[in-house]
């Protein structure tokens, strides 16, 4: 369990908690009753961490994991791409809402606002670029 905790970058106590909640389960147990987890459990823990960062509750995470368990990889990709498309449409609307406000600001104020947001925005743009150039679309 210690190795799994290190790989997943969470505490052993969290692994115990997730096991008690049924979010993860050991593959087998040793003769001394130690829990052994599979590589799929590590992937599942990484999904849980990602969803927690996206502010999902543990109950919502359980529901999502259950949904993903019964869904093919193709359906998962389609669902995620649809979600990204919805987010991009929302961002487009928000940018359009900002245009009148930005046009009334001084150039120094606009630069300051963009400088603060630029690292986060560039990381997002780079992730999309990688997906589009190295993903299944090429």
Explained architecture:
The structure is a single chain. With 138 residues, the protein is mostly helical. 75% of the residues lie in helices and 3% in strands. It contains 6 helices and 2 strands. The chain has a two-stranded antiparallel sheet with strand order 1-2. β1 and β2 form a beta hairpin. The longest helix is centred in the middle third of the chain and has 32 residues. The model has no long low-confidence stretch (mean pLDDT 82).
**Fraction in helix:** over 70%
Count of beta strands? 2
**Spatial extent as radius of gyration:** 21 Å
Supply the number of helical segments.
6
Distance between the termini: 40 Å
Share of β-strand residues:
under 5%
Query: Strands of the biggest beta sheet: in what spatial order?
Result: 1-2
Order of helices and strands: HHEEHHHH
Topology:
Blueprint: H1 2-8, H2 12-21, E1 28-29, E2 35-36, H3 39-53, H4 58-69, H5 73-104, H6 107-134
Antiparallel strand pairs: 1-2
Defining key terms:
138 residues; mainly alpha; two-stranded antiparallel ribbon; 2 strands; 75% helix
The gist of it:
By secondary structure, the protein is mainly alpha-helical. The chain has helices at residues 2-8, 12-21, 39-53, 58-69, 73-104, 107-134; strands at 28-29, 35-36.
């Amino acid at each position: 369990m210690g190795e799994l905790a290190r790989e997943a970058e969470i505490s052993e106590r969290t692994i115990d908690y997730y096991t008690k909640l049924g979010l993860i389960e050991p593959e087998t147990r040793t003769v001394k009753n130690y829990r052994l987890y599979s590589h799929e459990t590590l992937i599942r823990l990484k999904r849980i961490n990602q969803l927690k960062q996206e502010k999902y509750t543990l109950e919502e995470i359980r529901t999502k994991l259950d949904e993903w368990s019964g869904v093919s990889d193709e359906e998962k990709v389609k669902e995620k791409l649809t979600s990204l498309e919805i987010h991009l449409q929302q961002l487009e609307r928000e940018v359009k809402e900002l245009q009148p406000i930005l046009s009334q600001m001084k150039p120094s104020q606009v630069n300051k606002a963009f400088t603060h947001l630029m690292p986060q925005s560039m990381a997002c743009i780079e992730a999309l670029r990688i997906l589009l150039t190295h993903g299944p679309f090429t």
